[in-house]
Amino acid sequence: MKVDISGLSKFFENRIRLGIMSILIVNDSYDFNSLKAALGVTDGNLASHLKSLEDNSLVRVNKKFIGKKPNTSYSATETGEKIFRTHLKALEDIIRKK
Fold it and tell me: Taking Cα atoms as reference points, which of 92, 98, 96, 90 lies closest to residue 4?
């Protein structure tokens, strides 16, 4: 049996990036500390994966102040959402194929 993996994206081969996009797809935005807590990763690990997703235009960064505290939040771009949904569909197709 041949399995078609052409729809899978290299961007989401890593579990942390997969987790980031899973959270961002179902939320309008999510802040850095909430992402860190949800995924159980370190600051540096999360920052490096977010940077990679940002560099590839899959997430956008929004920096603002809440009171006097800086707050950085992230959201999925249209491109990021499209690529992620294609990735998920490819996974579903592989799982359903017998």
Answer: 90
